[in-house]
Amino acid sequence: MCRCGSLRSTTRRSTTSVATDLARVALPLVLTALLAGCQQPGTAPTPAHSTSPVTSSSVESAQTRSLPLPDGRTAHLRSLGGPRTQPLLDRIAGELGDAAAAVTAFWGPDWPRDIVVIATETDQQFRVLGFDGPDIAAATTADGIVFAPGAAAMSPASLRIVVRHELFHYAARAHTAADAPRWLAEGVADFVGRPPTPLPGPAAAAALARLPTDADLDSVGEQRSAAYDRAWWFSRYVAARYGADTLRRLYVRASEPGHPDVADAVRATLGADLDRVLAGWRDWMSG
C-alpha cells in the first residue's frame, strides 16, 4: 500500500507502509464490487458485507465511468458520491493518458490493462478503506488507486504528480515484494511522476545525498519531505549516470519477491559497490 501526501504543498510526499487489517480485508472486497459494477454497466454491484458506508450504500450508489486510454487500457473511474468526487475524477481523467504513457515509457507495456480509480468524498470513507492522515492525497494497492477528499483541492501540477506516482505503483505491484526497500519504491515513483529540477549544488549536496531510513519516511513535516526528496534524487542520479533502464532493473532486482539486500542489488545492476555509488551521487549532486 502506498500512501501519498502533501496536500499542503505543490509537490506531495508519499510513504509505503504495511496495510492495516481493515485495508487487507475491506479494500479488495470493495474494489472487487466496484470493478464488477464497472464491467457490467447498469447492474448494481454486490456490496461487500460490512456496516460501513463505503462497503454498503456507497458502493450501491457509486457512479462509474469507463474511459478508454490512448494505449488501449481502460480506466474505471468510480465516484463514491458527493459534490467533490466527480470534478476530481474529471481532472484525473484528463491526466491518465499522459500518465499511462509516462509509466510505460519507463516500466514497459507489461502492466494491468484495467485501472480502477476511486474518489472518496469523506474522510470516513477513506478511513474505512484503511487509509488515514491529513496530508494523504491518494493510496494504491494491487486492486486500484483511491483518492482522498483533500485531493480535490490540489493544484494541477500537484495532481499530475500524484496520478503518475500512484500509477507507477499500480503498474509495478506484481514485481514489488512487501519488504521491498521503501525509499527505492518511492524514489522511483517520484522519478516517473515529478518533473526534473536543477541540481542543488555543493551547499545542499551533503544533506540531500543520503539514503533515507524508514524512520525518516515515517516522520512529519520537513524531515519527511527531505526524506522523499533524497529518495527521488538518488533515482534521478542512477538514471542520469547509468540510464533509466538500469534504474528500472535496479528497482526490479531490489524489490522483486526473494530480492537480495540493497547492496547486492546495486552491485548486480550498477556494477559498483554501494559506497562507490553513493560517493558518485554526492559528486553529481554538487553539480
Write the topology of this structure.
Layout: E1 2-5, E2 14-16, H1 21-39, H2 57-61, E3 63-68, E4 74-79, H3 85-107, E5 114-119, H4 123-128, E6 136-141, E7 144-147, H5 156-172, H6 182-193, H7 202-208, H8 214-217, H9 221-242, H10 244-255, H11 262-270, H12 274-285
Parallel strand pairs: 4-5, 5-7
Antiparallel strand pairs: 1-2, 1-6, 3-4, 6-7
Q: How would you describe this structure to a colleague?
A:
By secondary structure, the chain is α/β, with parallel strands linked by helices. It is 52% helix and 12% strand. A seven-stranded mixed β-sheet has the order 2-1-6-7-5-4-3, sandwiched between helices. A hairpin with an 8-residue loop joins β1 and β2. It is built from twelve helices and seven strands. α10 runs antiparallel to α11. The chain starts with a strand and ends with a helix. The chain has two domains: 174 residues, 2-Layer Sandwich (Zincin-like), CATH 3.30.2010.30; 104 residues, no CATH class. About 16% of the residues have low confidence.
First CA to last CA: what distance?
Answer: 35 Å
Instruction: State mean pLDDT (0 to 100 scale).
Output: 83
The neighbouring-strand order within the major sheet is 2-1-6-7-5-4-3
CATH first level of the largest domain: Alpha Beta
Cα-atom radius of gyration: 19 Å
Into which percent range does the helicity of residues fall?
A: 40-55%
Q: What is the name of the CATH topology of the largest domain? A: Zincin-like
**What is the helix/strand order?**
EEHHEEHEHEEHHHHHHHH
